[in-house]
Amino acid sequence: MAPTPLPLEQMAGVGGYLPAGQEGGPRINTMSMSVLIDFIIQRTYHELTVLAELLPRKTDMERKIEIYNYAARTRHLFTRLNALVKWGNSVSKVDKSSQIMSFLDKQNMLFVETADMLARMSRETLVRARLPNFHIPAAVEVLTTGTYNRLPTCIRERIVPADAITPAEKKQTLLRLNQVIQHRLVTGKLLPQMREFRIKNGRVTFEVKHEFSVALTVMGDSQNVPWRLLDIDVLVEDKETGDGKSLVHPLQVNYIHQLIQARLVENPNALSEVYNCLHYFCQSLQLEVLYTQTLRLNYERLDDNNITVEEYVPGVKLTVSYWRDLKSELGYRLTVQSDPSEIGRPLAVVHVPSLGAKESAEVADRAVRSEHLSMERLIVHTVYIRSVSRLSDLKLEFQAFLKDVDFNLQGTPAILTVPVLSPCLRAEQIHITIDTHTGMFRCHVPKHLDCPITEDMQEALNADRSKLPSLLSELRYWITHRRCEKTLQHLPATATDTLTFLTLPEQELLQQGRHKIYVKLHRHPNIILVVQLKEKATMANEMEYTFHLGFVAFQKDEADVIDDSAKQLVSVVAQPPSDIPKFFTKLMRLIEFDTFVATHGPGTEVDAPPAKQQKTIFPAYFIPELAHVVAMCDEKIPFMNLAQTLSKHNIPHSGLQVEANATSLVLKILALPQPGKSATASGQQTQQGAASGAASEPKPQPLSGSSAFPKIEPHVWDDLMRRVLSISVRSQTNKNSQVRIWVVEFVFYSTPLQSCHPKEQGSRRTVYLTYEQANHDFSKTVEELLNDWSKIVYLYTLVHDFAEQLKNKRLPLCDMLVVKSYSYMNLLLGYGPKKEVSCNIYWSVQSHGFRLTFVGGMSAVNAHSMMRDQLAQHLNQHHSLTQIAQILHETYYPMSSIAKLPVLPFLGIPRPQVPVLSFCMLAQSPCLMRLTYQAVYCLELRFRANRLVSIRDGASSRFERNIIEEFTPIQGLKAFLSKYVDESAAYRGRAPHEDDNPLSPMGMEDNYGGPSSVTGVSAGGSSPFLGAGMRGPQSPRDSGLRFPAPHTPPSSSNPHTPASPHPSAGSGGAAQSHGNFNLTSPPAPHMPHPSPGGLMPSSPLNPQPSPHMVHSPGPNTLYMQSHQDSPFTAMSPANNQWPGSPSMPRPSPRPGQSPEHKSTGGSVVAGGPDRGGSRGTLNRPWAGAVPTLLTHEALETLCRPSPHPNKDINVTDMSPLERFLGCVYMRRQLHRNIQSEESLTALNSTEPGVVLFKVDGLQCQVMLNQMHMQTLHLKITQLPSPPDKPTFQLSPDDLLVIEQYFDTRVAAPPYRPNSLHSICRLLNLPAQVLKDFVQIMRLELKPEFGGDQLKWTVQMCMRMPPSAVPIVPSGNACVVLGRMKILFFLQITKIPYNGKDWKDSPSLVLPIVYDITTNLTQMAERREQVPSPMMTAASTLLRRFAEFNSQQNQCSLFPAITDLLTNLQLATDMPQPPPNQAIGPPVGVGVGGVGVGVGVVGSSPNPMMPMQQLQPQVGPQGQVGPGGYPQLGPNPGGPQ
C-alpha cells in the first residue's frame, strides 16, 4: 500500500504552515508500536473482564457463542498485529519512499499556492488600490533644509525650556553666596557646640560629634532673608542591635525638617534653635539605644541577678545596677543622664559607689562619647575599674604576711598573681581575679587545675581572710609534691604519698601528718627513698629537702617471716610463689643521707647558681637535688649488688669508681678465673646463697661423640693473661628498647692471629659484652660473664696453636685460607678460590663445644653448610684448626659441585599428591656424603686427597651381603661413571719430599684411629661383594695383619676392582699392635683386621701415606658413631657390637691388578675405562658397589647443568647425573609396568640393562644410549604375521616415527612414569588405529607435513593436564582403553599469522573419544559441565565430519583430526594467512599441555609440569573396527 501524502498544513515549504527544520519530522497521525501493543493488551484484558462478569448470567449456549466471538475477534486482532510486526521489518524502505513522496507533494503544493495567491491579489486586492495626496511643500522643505519651520510658536513656548546659565555664571553665583553665608555667621550669635562648620557650594554644614550634622543656606543677600534648612543627618548609631539600619525613619526626619524650618522664620537666634532641637532629639535617641541594648543584653546573655534596669526616664536618664549578689550597703549601679543645669553638654555617667573623676570620665568617653555607643562596653569597663580597685586592696593584705614577694596585677580582666614558691613559674602562681558577673573572687593555679586547696582558698577570699596564711602553706607543700612527681617523670622512679604498712614504723619521720614523699625505685623494688620537706625559716617561699634511704620487705600478713637477707644491700631477685600476694611493706632499715655530700660529688654541681642568661633553661618545677639523689641511687645500687656478687664468686675487683671527667661509673675487674677451675669454687658458694627449695637447672651435656673440654695449657693461659689489659663493667641504656644493660669491656693487647679486617689492625683490641639488668639476678649475670669468658679462652686455645702453624712456611695454610676477622669471640676464616666464602668458628656454652656457621660470597654459595654438624664434631674431637682448614680446602670443590644438584620437590613421583625431593644430601662425616635421588636411588661419595672423589652405589650395604631395603641398586652406574674417569688421576704422583716430610705427624694415626680413620682411599676394608680372600691391597705401613693376603694373579676383567697386593705387603704385620682395624666388620679388641693405606699424601682426608693405591674404601666408624641422627646410622655396625662379619659366598668381579703389577696381556690403569673386559661386567647390578675414583673436574662435569645431548629435545639444562638417574628410573618403571600390564609380554634379554617386551605384532626394545648413557631409546621390530592369519603391517617409516616420539616426548625430562603407561597403551592398539596415532605423532614432530591449509598445530598429551576437562585425574596417564573405546587428549595451538608470536596464540585441550566398533571420532563431554564456545565448535566439527564422512572403510581418527585442524576457527579470527606461510612448531618437548580452554593466551604445551592426582585407569582391549585400513597420505583432509 502506497503511503498517504501529508496535508498542506504539515508541509514545511509554505511559509507560516510548519516551522523551519521540521520538514522531516514524524507524522502526526503515527503511533508507537509499544503503545499500540499496550492498547491491544488493555482492550483484550478489558473485554475478558467484561466477559467474565456477563457470562454467568447467560445460558450455556450463549456463553459458548460469546466465548467463540471473543476468541475469533481477539485472534483476528493479534493476527493483524502479527502482520504489522512482520511488515515493520521493511518499514525503513516504506518510510524512505513516503518521505520522498511527501517532499514532492510539498513542492507541488508550493507552486499551486503561489499561483493562487498571485491570482487573488490581482483580482481582489489590487482592484481598489489608490495613492494619497502628498504634502509637497513640507516634503521639499524637509528634504532640502533638514528642518520644518511651519509649526505653531505656542508649541515652542510650552515645550522647549529656557536656556540654562553658563558654568561661569554658576561659579560666580556660588562664590557670592558663600560670602553672604560667611557674613551672616560672623555678624550673628553662634553657640560653642556649633563652632565646627564648613562653607562650600553656597551652603554651610554644622557637625556635632556623635549627635547630628545639618546643612543650611540663604536665598538672598538681605539680612531679613531667613535661613533655609537643606539637610539633616542623625549621627547616632546602634552597631550592636541596629543591624546596620538607620535609627530614624525618613518621615521622622521630614517632620523634624519642617518643624525646624518653621522655627527659623523671623527667629533672631535661628542657629541656637536648630542646635537645641537636634541636641535634645539626639540625646533622647542615645538613651533609647542604651536602654534597648540593656534589655537585649539582659534577655539574651545575662539574667536579673547580674544586670537590671532600675529606672529609665526617656530623654532624661537611665539607671542600671550590677553585682547584685555582692553584699554592699549602697549596691553597685551606674546612671547615664543629661546635664540638667546645662542643656548643651553631652550625656554624663554617675557611679554608685563613686569613682574618681578621672575614671568616670574615662568610662563615659569609652562607652557614650564614642562612635560605638554600647551599654556592654560601659558595664565591662566599669567592672574592670571596680575589679582593679578590689584586687589592689587584696594585694595590700597579702603584703602584710608575705614579705619580699613580687606581686603582679595586670591584664584584662585584671588578674593578681601571687607566687607561693621561689623560684616559681607563672603557671604555678595563684591567679586571683574577680567574676565579672557576680563580683566574687576567683582563684586557681593554671598548672594544677585539679588542686583541692584552691576551693578552700576561694572561700577564704570571699569570707574569712584570716585562713589565707595556713592555706598558702598547704598549697606550697602540695605544689612541691607535684614538682617531685614532675622531676621523677623521666627517671625510673615513682613518687607516692603513702606506703602500705601493716604497722606504722617507730621513726618520727614516717609518722602520719608529716610532709614527706616516698620514692619507689623501679629497678630496685626493695629500696625506697624518703624525701622530707620543710619550709625555710628565713624565707617561707623556699623549701628544704632531707633524704633518707630505706630498705623494705614485703609480707602478706603479720605472721609472715622476713629473711635477714632483706636487710642487706641486695635487690630482690624473685619471690617464691605464694597463694596470697605480698602487698604490705615492712621497713627494715633507714639511712639518712648527708644532702651536701650527696650533691657535691666528683663532677657534681647541683646547687651551683646558673648564669643569668641560663635561668630560663632550668624550669622551676625541676628539683635538681631530688633528681640527682634518685639517679645516684639508681646508678650505684646495681654496681654495689654486682660487686657483692663478684666477691661471692671470688672474683677480685677494685670497687666502684668514677671515670675521668665524671663521664660514667665503672667497676674494674682485676682478674677472671680459668674456665675449668672456676666452676667448683664459685658453684658451691652460689648454691649456699640461693633461696631454699629452688630447683637447680641441669647443665647441658657436651656434644655426643665429642671429647672433653679443650685443655688449656699453662703457656697458653699465661699468654692470654699477658694480653688482657683491663676488664671494665659499665651500665648503659639501650637506645632502642630503653632497657638498662651491663657493658663489659675487655681490652686486649693485639692478637696472636692477624686478620685482614681494617678495624683489627691496631695494637688495642676491645671486646664488648652486654647483659640485661631487668631480672635483678646478679648471680646469673656473673655466670653469663664467666661463660663468655670461657668462649674467649677456649677459642684462644685453638687460635694460639693455629697461629704458630700458620706462620710455618712449610705448610701451605696461607694459600688455603685467609683470616678475615678474629675478635676473641669469633674466628672468621675465608677460603675458596677467591676467599669469599666464610666459616665462623665460636664456642657454644649451651652445647659445650665449638660451633661452625658458613656464609657464602657474592659469586658462590657455601656448600659446607650441609656438613656443619660433622665438621663441628670433628673440631670438638681433635681441637685442631689446621685439620679443619685442610678439610675445608680439599672438600670445597666437590661440595660446590654437589650443591649444584637440584633439591626441589616434584609431584608425580611415584604418586601425584606426594612430593618427592629430586636430590637429598645426607652428610655422614666430613669426607662422606650420601645422595638420594627421588628416595629410590642412593649414591655414596667419599672425598679423598689429590682432588679425587670415590663414588659407589649406596644401596649396597658394606656390612651385610644384601641390599638396603629403602633403596634400589642403580643398574649401569659403574659404566656411566667410567666415562668420566681420568686415567692420569690414578697415577698422580707425589713429590719425593712428601714421604720424608709428611704434612701431619705420625701421631695423627692414633688421633684419627689409625688407618680406619678418614682416609682418602681406604677407611674400612673391601666391598662386601668381594670374597674373604680377595681383600684390598695392604700398605707396608699397615699394622695388625692376622695373616698375609693371598696373591691373586693379575687380571684385566675389571680395572675398578681392587687387586691383591704383593706378598710382601703382609710381612712384619704380626709384630705390631692391634691399633688399626678393618671396618668391613665392626672393630673388636680381639679381632684386629688390616686396613689398606692410600696413594694420596697425608692430610685430614688421608692422614697415613702409603706407596700403594687401592679402590675399596669403607665407612668411617668414628663419624658414623657420632652422627646419631643420620638415617644410615642404624645400618652401621657401630650400633651393633659384632666381632666380625662372616664372608658369605656371592658372585664377585675378579680382582683387578695392582698399579705396580705389569700384566702380560697389557697394563690396565686402575680407575680408567674398561678396554680389556666386557661391557656386561660394568652393567652388572653389583658393579656399582665397587667405588669409582673421579677427579673434582669430573664431578663438576657430572653435577653441573648442561644442554641435553639430543638437540631435538628442548628442555632446561640438567646435570648428566640427573639425566642418567632419570633414565634409569624410567627404565625401572617401564619394567614394572610390563610386569603389571596383561597386554604387555616381557621377553628375556641377554644384554644387561635392556628392557625387551612385545605387544600385538610388535617387539620393543628399550635401552640406554651407550655413548653418554643420558637418554633412553626405543627400538621397534615388526613381527611377521602368521600365514593363516595375515595382519595389517606398519611401514618402517611409521616405526621410526614411534621411536622418535618415544625418545623426544616420552623418555625425555621431566621423567614421569605415567607417560610410559600412555605410550604402552598406544602400542597395544590395533594396527589400523595405531596407524592414525602414528600420523598424529608425525604431525606433532614435523608440523610442516600438514601442508599450508592447517590452521592449528597438534600435540598428544601423555599425561592428564591439570586444566583440561576433569575426566581423568590430573597427572594420570591420559590414554584410557575401555569398552571398545579409546579416550585420549590432544592439545591444539593456533598457528600465528600477520607477524604474531606463538606466545599470543590460543590453545585448547580436547578430550577425544574414538569408538573402534562404530569407527566414530567425537568429543568427550561431561553433562554437568557447561562447555566453552570453542569446545562446542570443535565438537560440532567432529559430528559434522562423522555425518558426511564417505570413506567408511578406513579409520576415521586421523581424517577427523585433520579436518578439525583445518576448519576450526575462532570468533575473532583475522583473514587467513597466505598459502606459502611457514609453519613452525608451537611447543618444545613435552608430553602434556598446560593451556586448556578457549582463549588461553601465552600457553604452550611444555612438559615441565608436576602432575597431580594420578590414578591409572586401564580398560579392556577392544577389537579392530570394520573394514580394512589402506595406507593414508600425508594429509587425508576432511570431507569435500
Describe what you observe in this structure.
The chain has 1536 residues and is α+β, with helices and mostly antiparallel strands. It is built from 34 helices and 43 strands. The strands form ten sheets. Strands 38, 39, 40, 41, 42 and 43 form a six-stranded antiparallel β-sheet that branches. Strands 13-14-15-16-17 form a five-stranded antiparallel β-sheet, with helices on one face. A hairpin with a 5-residue loop joins strand 24 (827-831) and strand 25 (837-844). The radius of gyration is 60 Å and the shape is flat. The model is unreliable at 1-26, 566-578, 610-616, 679-707, 989-1100, 1102-1175 and 1472-1536 (pLDDT under 50).
Largest sheet: 6 strands, antiparallel
Q: What sort of overall outline do the alpha carbons produce when their principal axes are compared?
A: flat
Distance between the termini: 48 Å
> Into which percent range does the helicity of residues fall?
25-40%
Strand element count: 43
Task: Assign the structural class, choosing from mainly alpha, mainly beta, alpha/beta, alpha+beta, or little secondary structure.
Answer: alpha+beta
Number of helices: 34
Q: Summarize model confidence as the mean pLDDT.
A: 76
How much of the sequence lies in strands comes to 15-25%
Are there runs of 5+ residues with pLDDT below 50, and where? 1-26, 566-578, 610-616, 679-707, 989-1100, 1102-1175, 1472-1536
Please state the CA-atom Rg, rounded to the nearest Å: 60 Å
